[in-house]
Write a structure and sequence with these properties.
The protein has helices at residues 89-92, 98-102, 106-112, 146-149, 162-169; strands at residues 3-4, 11-14, 18-22, 25-42, 55-70, 75-82, 119-130, 133-141, 179-189, 195-202, 222-232, 249-266, 269-286, 289-301, 309-321, 327-340, 346-360, 364-377, 397-407. The chain has 408 residues and is mainly beta. The longest helix is centred in the middle third of the chain and has 8 residues, at 162-169. The protein is globular and about 65 Å long. The two termini are 18 Å apart.
């Protein structure tokens, strides 16, 4: 039974998180811990990091503390603090890649900086006028591909795919997903809320910056939006593995876009790029079967400093939860390509497999996964160490991860 608070009106308890309520005020507290062993192997010894060689070790990528709840007059709030071992991919990486070679991600050095551990990853206040229109303001998640919309705790694999990591890095504020300072309007429409939308207007500079005090930022704003249609059931924006039921189909389709006119310098104006990123995705579930698919495109045009490029990524991921057991298997096949106007094309293909054992659902689970990465074109220069991928150049690679997750 819920506990009555000593010394006054109010209650406390646990329901998907610890909560405290007094009158119209509610605070819910959640904690996520992800402890891993991970290893990365290069087929070609000559491309291994120096002096490390093949890399392996233990880590605590996420130690996330979340506060959420209700205030008066239909006001809600959320704050997420990260104390984990994620760090920043430019400071953690052992093998210079992507950013060090072609400069695509150099912008992230300024957008995200080098945050201290224990910084705010997300925080906002929102006012719910009705289920159709909710106004949110602060450090908000920006619309993106379906897999990045899925909370890290709910992923089928230990982390997102190579394809999703690539597309996330082409937009501001990428960490475990994309966030930026600004406001969002979101809600659900239709007879049963089967249409969901979100629209955001943000700085376009990512976390860390306080633009009015930071002379490295520019004035243009970033605009993004996402529309989702629940064809069957209520799957929402997330992966297909989260909403299916026995003998019942669930299905959803979504589309999203992000646009930002990026200035490298304001006085006088030097144009970095017109940055357009967009994608379509879908998810299906029935019984223990689940499927997620996505196609995404990133284009930087009209640059005065030579950063024009086209990039694409695609993903197919399927899973099966064995009936009346705690075991799930999953597999995915995905790829990305990067085509700069004045340079060689590069990319990579990932084949991944995973096994989940649900001790207590997603709240307490163990995941073992393996990703086999094949370098395409002129090589794989991906350097995203948050999700665990690394540059393999012209070599193939293999990523192994064993994770125990506790999410309270």
């Amino acid at each position: 039974a819920d506990t009555s608070l000593v010394g006054g009106a109010g209650q406390a308890g646990y329901d998907g998180g610890f909560w405290i309520r007094g009158g119209s005020f509610l605070m819910k507290i959640n904690l996520t811990l992800q402890t891993r062993w991970e290893g990365f192997d290069w087929d070609d010894t000559a491309t291994e990091p120096r002096p490390g060689g093949d890399l392996s070790g233990f880590s605590l990528p996420r130690a996330t503390l979340k506060f959420s709840g209700d205030a008066t007059c239909d006001v809600h709030y959320y704050a997420e603090l990260e104390f984990g071992h994620s760090g920043h991919y430019l400071t953690n990486r052992q093998n210079a890649g992507f950013a060090g070679n072609l400069g695509l991600l150099n912008q992230q050095t300024f957008e995200f900086g080098t945050p201290d551990y224990g910084t705010l990853r997300e925080g906002w206040i929102e006012y719910e006028t009705s289920p159709y229109a909710i106004f949110r303001m602060g450090l908000v998640k920006t619309p993106t591909t379906r897999q990045l919309m899925t909370p890290p705790e709910m992923q089928q694999f230990v982390d997102i795919s190579l394809a999703s990591a690539f597309i996330g890095q082409t937009m501001p504020g990428y960490s475990d997903r994309n966030r930026d300072y600004g406001f969002m309007v979101h809600g659900a429409l239709g007879c049963d809320g089967e249409w969901q939308y979100m629209l955001t207007v943000t700085n376009g500079d990512g976390p860390v910056h306080r633009n009015v005090l930071d002379g490295t930022t520019d004035d243009p704003l970033a605009f993004s939006g996402r529309l989702n249609w629940d064809i069957l059931g209520h799957m929402g924006y997330e992966e297909g593995a989260l909403r299916q039921h026995s003998c019942e189909w669930t299905a959803a389709l979504g589309a999203w876009a992000h646009y930002f006119v990026d200035h490298a310098n304001e006085n006088s104006i030097v144009h970095n790029a017109d940055r357009l990123t967009w994608g379509v995705d879908g998810a299906v579930g029935w019984g223990g079967f689940s499927l997620t698919a996505a196609y995404s495109v990133a284009t930087w045009d009209n640059s005065q400093i030579g950063n024009d490029f086209d990039g694409t990524s695609w993903l197919v991921q399927a899973g099966y939860l064995f009936p009346d057991t705690a075991w799930e298997i999953a597999a995915r096949y995905d790829a990305y390509t990067f085509q700069p106007d004045n340079g060689p094309d590069f990319g990579a293909t990932e084949i991944g497999v995973a096994v989940n054992y649900y001790i207590d659902g997603h709240a307490d689970k163990v995941t073992l996964d393996a990703s086999f990465i094949q370098a395409d074109d002129d090589g794989n220069l991906m350097a995203d160490t948050y999700a665990g991928y690394n540059a393999t150049f012209t070599s193939d690679g293999m990523l192994l991860r064993l994770q125990w997750q506790l999410a309270l």
